[in-house]
């Protein structure tokens, strides 16, 4: 068995990519389900495993819905030639009250209605159903083909028995992760690469119980895969993992075994400073987010992002770093964050964080 970590995409040979054809993802949350989906889309057989059967079913449904949205973009029809500007512009403009008929032939739907989040959500929910009445054949084929490669269950033993790569995406608890790998290590084939989706723990801690000389870790944040390569990591394992990242269309970057690696090591302190600004009363949450979106070009403001990720997640990451590095002021306790966490205000998932959300 080899232990490894991936984080982005790079040049590779097709032979190297073919080495990993079956993947198991442990943990069916947003991140785990996302990894499972992109791997299945890349043509790899995937096992998505979770101890909670309901969570598995929910993840499977989310993946199906996500695939339908991907398919809509992937198989959009030809728009045809653009008419001459002056003579044909008005002929191309059709005004009506029938939104269903309009979006049925549209490649892009842009809403510009009243600034009411509930109304916007209801509008898109309605139009989304209309859009899928278009190229049903290609969409159905794409979704069905990908879902056929995705096997969801609660049986991790059966899943890892045939997997080339096993990726955990469970709770950020080092003991639980170690116990999981200790269990799966006995069940997986010798060639299997083990990877972790941790966003805050040390690689060396995650693999503490192992005595293999071939170790590394996987952190999977959105479009980039961060490869954390220890001195002991074999070149073969590193190349396999890097090739897998490229095969699912990701960009790979390397980083040392430091808390949070690149993304979270910069992101968590950044969000923390925004919370401290709000706590001191320097600016409102809306103004802080607006300033960073328009002033720094970020797609989301720091407090919006915190609500999206989950204030409980941010709280636990900061708590772990504060314990490991008590003298680092960037990891120091933030009373407002702790208060919201203890009140059960985790952000979008709970309906309230720095902002309130309608469920």
From TrEMBL:
Superkingdom of the organism of origin: Eukaryota
Keywords (A to Z) from UniProt: Fatty acid metabolism, Lipid metabolism, Mitochondrion, NAD, Oxidoreductase, Signal
Coiled-coil region(s): none
Single GO MF descriptor: NAD+ binding
Gene Ontology CC annotation, any one: mitochondrial matrix
Protein name in UniProt: 3-hydroxyacyl-CoA dehydrogenase
Family, similarity comment: Belongs to the 3-hydroxyacyl-CoA dehydrogenase family.
Catalyzed reaction equations: a (3S)-3-hydroxyacyl-CoA + NAD(+) = a 3-oxoacyl-CoA + NADH + H(+)
Pathway(s) served: Lipid metabolism; fatty acid beta-oxidation
Residue span(s) of domain 3-hydroxyacyl-CoA dehydrogenase NAD binding: 22-131, 137-258
Residues at which CoA binds: 66, 73, 199
UniProt subcellular location: Mitochondrion matrix
Annotated signal sequence range: 1-17
Annotated EC: 1.1.1.35
One Pfam family named in its UniProt record: 3HCDH_N
GO biological process, one term: fatty acid beta-oxidation
3-hydroxyacyl-CoA dehydrogenase C-terminal domain span: 260-357
InterPro entries given in the database record: 3-OHacyl-CoA_DH, 3-OHacyl-CoA_DH_CS, 3-OHacyl-CoA_DH_NAD-bd, 3HC_DH_C, 6-PGluconate_DH-like_C_sf, 6PGD_dom2, Mito_3-hydroxyacyl-CoA_DH, NAD(P)-bd_dom_sf
